[in-house]
Amino acid sequence: MKTRAAVLYKTGQTPPYGVSRPLRIMEVELDPPGPGEVLIRVRAAGLCHSDLSVIDGSRAREMPLVLGHECAGVVEQLGAGVKDLRVGDHVVASFMPSCGACEPCIGGRPVLCEPGFAANMAGTLLSGARRLHGDGGPIHHFLGVSAFAERAVLARNALIRVDSRLPFDEAAIFGCAVITGTGAVVNTAGVPRGSTVAIVGLGGVGLSALLAAHMLEAKAIIAIDLSDEKLNVARILGATHTFKAGDADCAKQVREATHGGVQYAFEAAGSVTALELAYRVTRRGGMTVTAGLAAADQRASLSYLSLVSEERTLKGSFMGSAVPTRDIPRYIGWYQAGKLPVKRLLSEHISLDQINEGFDRLAASQSIRQIVML
């Protein structure tokens, strides 16, 4: 079938993207789902820095490809062997498909699935197939989703059925921003009630982490960012203190305000500078968690002595250390119960034709979460 999609043919084009237009809106051919796959009608898709990092060339991927990995939609067709979904089900995509058989999957860590990672890096579905085609041949999938399109084919294990009463724009952000930020706090760090928490980087992931810390009744929530506007949002969402990341003595200010630093610091900017700052504001015996994704060649400089002598913990958190089939419905339940007000993260609603301009706003930190409505 034919479907409209935003196709990236070349990375590193000069911004503003509203002028250079790296994403071309065009009709592509989409094959029907193969065994163990599902065709969905995409209804809402979020713009994320992981997409932007491919557009600007920070992260290498095979071209051409259809970006987009945070989405919600409706099941339209089932491939052979798919018995546990029905046409008409509402679903949220997981950008890490899980095979269910490799060592991480068996050990309860499906977001570290080895075949899923290999497929994502190759630009294929979990089966190894590419279901997207253009005039010049195959088009690659992005993280097994490729949501910047009217329709998409995904592996069955990359879809989570959700409550059909949940609006699609709200459902979409649970697939990346919420599962990553909330999961970093709940799963990776296991932040207990009454803790002191700092969050460096206040995009969709960082503010999701802030909301989770507030839900868990952290006694101090320190929000750190370069943007005054985002710091204002953080205060509305429950931050007890806010600091400008660009201040030369930012770490000193935080440590003074918290009497030596926080017990848990989260880096959500995908920046080496942000990670180093998060480490410096962590107190003795504390934990620094990084949920951002910097370019592959980036290296951080941290104090070896403090890691040992202060018994620090430095942890990575990929996709919130989640079990998506467990955590996405759980986080939606918290949202519906009023405990995790993630709707406040939604910024603009845009059309597929406005997507290049949307990435200009994202690159300029002018939005938290823009949603393409399809």
Q: How is this fold's topology laid out?
A:
Layout: E1 2-8, H1 17-20, E2 23-30, E3 37-46, H2 49-55, E4 65-66, E5 71-78, E6 90-93, H3 103-106, H4 114-122, E7 132-134, E8 137-141, E9 151-155, E10 159-161, H5 168-172, H6 177-189, E11 196-200, H7 204-215, E12 220-225, H8 228-237, E13 241-244, H9 250-257, E14 262-267, H10 272-280, E15 282-290, H11 304-309, E16 313-316, H12 324-336, E17 346-350, H13 355-363, E18 369-373
Parallel strand pairs: 4-8, 11-12, 11-14, 12-13, 14-15, 15-16, 17-18
Antiparallel strand pairs: 1-2, 1-4, 2-7, 3-5, 3-9, 3-18, 5-6, 6-10, 7-8
Helix pairs in contact: 6-7, 6-12
Task: Describe the protein's architecture and organization.
This protein is α/β, with parallel strands linked by helices. It folds into two domains: 2-175 and 341-373, Quinone Oxidoreductase, Chain A, domain 1, CATH 3.90.180.10; 178-319, NAD(P)-binding Rossmann-like Domain (Rossmann fold, 3-Layer(aba) Sandwich), CATH 3.40.50.720. The chain has helices at 17-20, 49-55, 103-106, 114-122, 168-172, 177-189, 204-215, 228-237, 250-257, 272-280, 304-309, 324-336, 355-363; strands at 2-8, 23-30, 37-46, 65-66, 71-78, 90-93, 132-134, 137-141, 151-155, 159-161, 196-200, 220-225, 241-244, 262-267, 282-290, 313-316, 346-350, 369-373. The strands form three sheets. Strands 3, 5, 6, 9, 10, 17 and 18 form a seven-stranded mixed β-sheet that branches. A six-stranded parallel β-sheet has the order 13-12-11-14-15-16, sandwiched between helices. A five-stranded mixed β-barrel has the order 1-2-7-8-4. Helix 6 packs across helix 7 and helix 6 crosses helix 12 (324-336). The longest helix is centred in the middle third of the chain and has 13 residues, at 177-189.
